[in-house]
Amino acid sequence: MEERIVSMKSDLFKALAHPTRVRILERLVENDKEVCVCELIEDLGVEQSNLSQHLSILRKQQIITSTKVGLKIMYRIKYPEVLTILEKVQKILAQQFQEGEALMRHLADR
């Protein structure tokens, strides 16, 4: 059972491990409402087929959900907690940048 849970965690991180998917999630959180796939294509500048593949991966992991409204397919984030993960990653990157900057200053002062 423990191995299955570890595998599920890994799969979730794999779903987040692509720049396009991160951009999709960041775009979906901007308005805090459903976004049409046509808007995502335009905003992200990716091909429809490529976007569909990324959306499929996010849906498979149940990170996003979709609903059909007329001819449009609308997407939203299912679990807002995923945004906390992205925010934490942003903080880690900022800390890493600061540490690298401090090291560069130290080396420059030698």
Automatic annotation (TrEMBL):
SMART domains: HTH_ARSR (SM00418). Coiled coil: none annotated. It comes from the Bacteria. Signal peptide: none annotated. The keyword Transcription applies. NCBIfam families: HTH_metalloreg (NF033788). PANTHER family: ARSENICAL RESISTANCE OPERON REPRESSOR ARSR-RELATED. This is Transcriptional regulator, ArsR family. It comes from Desulfosporosinus metallidurans.
